[in-house]
Amino acid sequence: MQGWIAAFVIIAALAIVLQAIVMFGLYLQFKKSSEQMTRIVRDLDSRVNPILLRINRILDDSEDRISSIVSDAAEVTRIARGQAQKVDRVFTDAVDRLRVQVVRADTILTGALEVIEDTGTRVRRTMQGPVMQVSAVLKGIKVGLDFIRGQQRPRSSEASAVDDELFI
């Protein structure tokens, strides 16, 4: 049993030494990687810092311009809105006035047409009576002349009805 314990102690010692060598190798590799990362970071820093400084200067210079552009855009929007409202009011007023004028023109035309129609009716009544009387007188004269000449023809019932209407 003593042999087994000595073997385990030797195996354990070898394992510890092997672990120490692996740990030392890891330490050296980590140190090498750390130095490379430091070099890369310094190189990146030396390249990026000037770019960042330029960007920062550009932004500082542009800040006033950008705020001016934004305020100008807001002013243009406000003015455009006001002008659109004025145009809307003008068009609304024009449409209302046009509507009133159309109603007025319709009223005038309707009144004129009624007067023309009434005048036509009166003229027809005024002219129709005397024209019918003159026509009846002329027809009577014709019949009288025909009778005197002896050319009286027998009349149909329709012709006598028309003649009767004309003399009434």
* Continuous helix count: 2
Number of strands: 0
DSSP helix fraction: over 70%
Mean pLDDT: 86
Cα separation of the termini: 168 Å
| Total count of domains | 1
Could you tell me the strand content as a percent range?
under 5%
The chain-level structural class is mainly alpha
Low-confidence runs (pLDDT<50, min 5 residues)?
none
3D shape: rod-shaped
Give the C-alpha Rg: 61 Å
Taken in chain order, the helices and strands follow as HH
The major sheet is characterized as:
none
How would you explain this protein's 3D organization?
There is one protein chain. The chain is mainly α and 168 residues long. It has one domain. The chain contains 2 helices and no strands. It has helices at 2-149, 157-167. The longest helix has 148 residues, at 2-149. The protein is rod-shaped and about 185 Å long. The model has no long low-confidence stretch (mean pLDDT 86).
Brief summary:
The chain is built from two helices and no strands. The protein is mainly α.
Task: Tell me the layout of helices and strands.
Elements: H1 2-149, H2 157-167
Short key terms for the protein model shown above:
168 residues, mainly alpha, 2 helices
